[in-house]
């Protein structure tokens, strides 16, 4: 089955438990349609570059999935209809990267970055 990565932003006034509950909810939608979540990460509340629906912050979540395209389309459709989800981004990947995403790594572990000039 094809591999996908999803990032979605939910409203800032949700509790952490509610935001993590959305991950489980959309994972169940995938499972009902023949897919599965390989890995999920809750990135927490982050400040956005611009306001979305009068919100300056949002709960970010990241999902790695192994699902048929029909399951992904159904999950995206339900995300767009859900009142608590503000934005969704889905990309198809050849393979999932091992370990935590860049957002979850500590600054020292990231490497490959230029040194700042003074």
In short:
This protein has 118 residues and is of the alpha+beta class.
Tag the structure with descriptive keywords.
four-stranded antiparallel beta sheet, alpha+beta, globular, 29% helix, 118 residues
**Proportion of residues in extended strands:** 35-45%
Radius of gyration over all CA atoms, rounded? 15 Å
End-to-end separation? 48 Å
Strand runs, count: 4
Average residue-wise pLDDT = 86
Structural class estimated from helices and strands? alpha+beta
Which parts are unreliable, with pLDDT below 50 for 5 consecutive residues or more? Answer: none
Helix content, binned percent: 25-40%
**Lateral strand order in the biggest sheet:** 2-3-1-4
What is the element string, with H for helices and E for strands? EHEEHEH
How is the main sheet built? 4 strands, antiparallel
Q: Helix segment count?
A: 3
Topology overview:
Layout: E1 3-11, H1 16-32, E2 36-52, E3 55-66, H2 69-81, E4 85-93, H3 107-110
Antiparallel strand pairs: 1-3, 1-4, 2-3
Helix pairs in contact: 1-2
Write a structural description.
The protein has 118 residues and is of the alpha+beta class. It has 3 helices and 4 strands; from the N terminus they run βαββαβα. It has helices spanning 16-32, 69-81, 107-110, and strands at 3-11, 36-52, 55-66, 85-93. It has a 4-stranded antiparallel β-sheet with strand order 2-3-1-4, covered by helices on one side. A hairpin with a 2-residue loop joins strand 2 (36-52) and strand 3 (55-66). Helix 1 packs antiparallel against helix 2. The chain is globular. It starts with a strand and ends in an 8-residue tail after the last helix. The mean pLDDT is 86.
